[in-house]
Amino acid sequence: MATTGTVSSSGPRYAPEDPTLPKPWRGLVDSKTGYLYFWNTETNVTQYERPSAVPIKPSPALLSSSIQVQTSLEGQIHGTSPDRDRNRREWGSSDVTGLVDGSRDNQMQQNARDAATGAQNTVKGVVSGGCGASSTGSSLSADAYRQHHEITVHGDKVPPPLMSFDDNCFPPEILREVHHAGFTDPTPIQAQSWPIALEGRDIVAIAKTGSGKTLGYLIPGFIHLNKTHNDLRMGPTVLVLSPTRELATQIQDEAVKFGKSSKISCTCLYGGAPKGPQLRDIDRGVHIVIATPGRLNDILEMRRISLMQVSYLVLDEADRMLDMGFEPQIRKIVNEVPSRRQTLMYTATWPKEVRKIAADLLVNPIQVNIGNVDELVANKSITQHVEVLSPLDKHRRLEQILQSQEPGSKIIIFCSTKRMCDQLARNLARHVGAAAIHGDKSQSERDSVLNQFRTGKSPVLVATDVAARGLDVKDVRVVINYDFPTGVEDYVHRIGRTGRAGASGVAYTFFGDQDARYASDLIKILEGADQKVPAEIRSMATRGGGGRFRRWGGDGGGGGGTGGRGDSGYGGRGPWSGSYGGRDGGRPQSGGNGRGSDSYRYPFFFDLRLRMHFLMPYRISCNIV
């Protein structure tokens, strides 16, 4: 899809020379998003699709109107003419582009049923009602598309997936934003959920993280808004509930980005921030409210918001909200929403608790599954490397991984404790842009850190699990599990920060003897994603724990003899001795010859010395000297 525009000397930059590009096209890279797009130096046309042949020079009339170009089924090029654009009413009036007036809902459902029985919507520059399987850009049948993308659906009269962006389903304002963002085709969850949502039906969508689910419910929500003409001061029409403030603000960013040309307003309600600005937004009136359950309940109790106009309700990451204990708050909120509504639930897993609340809150929903929902699976687009290491070796291996990445690559490092998170971030910040995020950070600090990470000012983010769920940052190249999480479910969600929206990614995981109880479950995740399983992990699973690294040191027992290489990764005393391994490999204070592993000097990132003392079992102090 082509749009006109000028090339800014300060914005985009030239991509490396590509001899396969037809003249006079040049590749450009957007400096803000990193997206590759193509510029015709003669016509000044830019587009995201790679040109395959010498283009026909468009007329000045076409250039001035910034028309949307589309290939019809016959292979001809058809444009939306300026006259036809002028005849269309503005989106937001009583008629909607892509929807017919009058009995629009009934007509839309009839069109979807026609498409399901084999009727093809041929695009000839005419807007048709409803959405169905489009052949534009895809030669697959609906069944073949579902099989190829591992989509299974359950429900009555399920419409076929929408396999390409097409102006017979979406208003041109939304299409412009979609193509400007660089999207060429819907993701599987979007392709199947859009036509269902546009029929006004309830949905349970079960898909892995990074599947594009946010737009899966936002875009139908925008179109739903156009069918209603509520007074904004009486309350929102669309309500989205999410488990964390990070996810809530990311949803808001997407809503603003894709809804700005349609003049859709939204606000975000979450804890850890002053209520004043949030209440002012509510008083002014907004179309969409995105909220965490706790803060929304607080404002409901203050009687500062009404949900009586909500007719489009979304529960995003429903499984996570239940894990966090939000079920009572969710039910209380839903009781404030009219029963005559459309409800969409998105979840990464499908345990019995989620099934129960879905049965209670949704009416005759269509269930859309992407992949196998009966067991936890990892994104196959992510290459997983699991390495069995002692804690001492973690630093050295982290250094090697970071050195091997291209400068400026976005990397997320996960730690199990806030203290380790801050310590690693401080050490890394001496040589690369690194910042930490965890639960003790204020909301303003978290927002600042995430903004630095997104813009590339701090390309390395060190985080605890508070950032693992719902964190959606484009182009995260690598995820490193410096500490293994407390379960494989968190592992899957951690590594899911890379390999998003169809991209590939890499995940490195440091696995120790203390993590052996997770070995069997980890093997299932690796095998399910067609990844290599290290022999040491299989050995751990077989013996059920214990093994390679002794927790409290090696042979240096009670008398403090030879400093063992314990779970801490540092030489020194046995657990019950009163002596430590001497610094720089010197003699211990008493006892035998201790190995002072704390003296290791890291040549690149960790130009420091760590002295670690076991004050008592499970209590560690760390001094930088």
Protein model, in words:
There is one protein chain. This protein is of the alpha/beta class. It folds into four domains: 2-66, no CATH class; 104-370, Rossmann fold; 382-543, P-loop containing nucleotide triphosphate hydrolases (Rossmann fold, 3-Layer(aba) Sandwich); 550-625, no CATH class. It is 31% helix and 17% strand. The chain has 19 helices and 23 strands. The strands form five sheets. Strands 8-15-9-14-13-10-12-11 form an eight-stranded mixed sheet, sandwiched between helices. It has a six-stranded parallel sheet with strand order 16-21-20-17-19-18. A hairpin with a 4-residue loop joins β4 and β5. α6 packs parallel to α7, α7 (213-227) crosses α8 and α18 crosses α19 (535-543). The longest helix is centred in the middle third of the chain and has 15 residues, at 213-227. The relative contact order is 0.07. Mean pLDDT is 74; it is low at 1-10, 54-130 and 546-625. Residues 19-53 form the WW domain. Residues 81-92 have a biased composition (Basic and acidic residues). It comes from Trapa natans.
Task: Quickly count the helices.
Answer: 19
Please state roughly what percent of the residues sit in beta strands, choosing from under 5%, 5-15%, 15-25%, 25-35%, 35-45% or over 45%.
15-25%
Strand order of the largest sheet: 8-15-9-14-13-10-12-11
Structural class: alpha/beta
Percentage of residues in helical conformation: 25-40%
Determine and state the CATH class of the largest domain.
Alpha Beta
Overall structural domain count: 4
Q: Give me the CATH architecture of the largest domain, please.
A: 3-Layer(aba) Sandwich
Q: Radius of gyration from the CA trace?
A: 28 Å
Biased composition (Basic and acidic residues): 81-92
Protein name: RNA helicase
Domain Helicase C-terminal: 397-541
GO molecular function: ATP binding; hydrolase activity; RNA binding; RNA helicase activity
